[in-house]
Amino acid sequence: MGLFGGKTETQPGETTAPAPRERSTPRAPASMSSEAPTVVGKDTVVKGELTGHTDMLVEGRVEGRIHGAKRVIVGESGDVEARVEAEIVIVRGKITGDCEASKKVEITATGKVFGNISARAIVVAEGATFRGASKMVPAETPRPQRPPEPARPAAPSTPSPTPPTQSRPS
Known about the structure:
With about 170 residues, the protein is mostly beta strands. It has a domain at about 40-135. About 0% of the residues lie in helices and about 40% in strands.
């Protein structure tokens, strides 16, 4: 094709080289948010605290703490030795540490969790490994607001009667 989509002409005996292929880069799962996720690559080691407000995809190693993310996905090559706190935690690799999710923790068939889980929903697929305690926390429901009680008129203040005193013989 030509520069603007038109035909290009080749001379007899002339060949055209195939177009170079674009390098494919790893992409986050389609279910992740539209914001660019934080990605910890396969050859990356993070020691310390990993904080963010977007989705996180961990394919490498994290030691310490992960928190604040909308969704944390530990990929099949991911190895996390940390406390993980997020809205949703999906484990395809390995987590050694506690997981706390405000919505859901899901351990897929290839996932391994060695620690306690606390979430509204916990999904453990057949073939997954889970060693720890699980705690299902109820969804936060707003408490019904009681209407304010009407102000009561103050009762007239009258002195309370004093009990009669008894006299004792001396």
